Amino acid sequence: MSQARFTVVVDNHAARGLTAEHGFALWLEYDGRIIMFDTGNKEALLPNSQALGLDLSKVSDLVISHGHYDHTGGIDVVIEQARGVQVYLHQAAFQPRYVGANGSAEPVRMPGKSTQALGHLKDEALHWMTHDKLLSKNIGITGPISRRNEFEDTGGAFYYDQEGKRPDPIDDDIAIWLRTSEGLVVCVGCSHAGIVNTLQAILESTGQRSVHTVIGGLHLLNASPERLEQTAKQLNALGVRKLVACHCTGDDARTYLKKHLDAEVIKGYAGFSLAYHPVFAPDGA
């Protein structure tokens, strides 16, 4: 049985010889599938993939965590190279998006070239994530995540309009989970639904009792002391053993979590890699 292999391709930080940019992309290799989870911002996806020996033409599935530019900037690159790729995202990923306040909101929507590339796909290659979906016995994608915890919000001043009159709840935020021999591994883009909301939803849908590893962005850059305290408390309660904090987590938040979590907390970067053994044989094996 093949290992589950996770490689950060794009991140705000990068190993020597790789390009860093404000964005996130994660390569997942498991159950005979190659999944690209998000595609970074603009320039880093292709050169980093090549430098890491990752062949984008072999990507079988492209999962988009949400529609912000720093996660969708390389969609056209993946679609161009991986001709048979299946794409998974929520319809709200195409919405106009802005971040900021006091009349200085900046656009953060999906780039036009990515929107166009998706628009040229055949209907059967696009999968709208209105509910949870299994890709295999070991791999699942969430649908929209319930927002149950009052201490969690989207992590910023996000709006549908430049005037800041229509708050954007970022309903398109989704995540991936994988069953491994160590336990559940959860991959998140920015956790705009809240990392605790996300993990609780995944545990409920899978029937598992704990999460072993979380990898991705937690968007705690603007988190209050109260939110950080509650987040750490809940992550400990959920049994998290390893946290690879990437992209938008924030240095101060990562430092806080490293001090207060029972889990091993690792600073993620482009080039970082993990591997786990599967718990079930791949479908058809």
Walk me through the structure.
The chain has 7 helices and 17 strands. With 285 residues, the protein is of the alpha/beta class. α3 packs parallel to α4 and α6 (225-237) crosses α7 (251-260). The strands form 3 sheets. Strands 8-5-4-3-2-1-17 form a 7-stranded mixed sheet. Strands 9-10-12-13-14-15-16 form a 7-stranded mixed sheet. It has one domain (4-273): Ribonuclease Z/Hydroxyacylglutathione hydrolase-like (Metallo-beta-lactamase, Chain A). The termini are close together. The model has no long low-confidence stretch (mean pLDDT 94). Helices cover 21% and strands 25% of the residues. The protein is globular. α6 links the parallel β14 and β15. The protein has helices spanning 45-51, 69-72, 75-81, 112-119, 195-206, 225-237, 251-260, and strands at 4-10, 25-30, 33-37, 61-63, 86-89, 98-99, 106-107, 126-128, 133-134, 139-141, 158-159, 176-180, 183-188, 211-217, 242-246, 264-267, 273-276.
Biggest sheet statistics: 7 strands, mixed
CA radius of gyration: 17 Å
Number of strands: 17
Fraction of residues in helices?
A: 10-25%
Tertiary shape: globular
Regarding CATH, which class? Alpha Beta
CATH architecture: 4-Layer Sandwich
- Beta-strand content: 15-25%
Query: How many domains, in number, for the residues?
Result: 1
Low-confidence stretches: none
The chain-level mean pLDDT equals 94
Compute the number of helices. Answer: 7
Give the SSE string: EEEHEHHEEEHEEEEEEHEHEHEE
Under CATH, the homologous superfamily reads: Ribonuclease Z/Hydroxyacylglutathione hydrolase-like
Strand order of the largest sheet: 8-5-4-3-2-1-17
Q: What structural class do you assign from the helix and strand content?
A: alpha/beta
What is the fold named in CATH at topology level? Answer: Metallo-beta-lactamase, Chain A
- Report, as a whole number of angstroms, the end-to-end distance: 8 Å
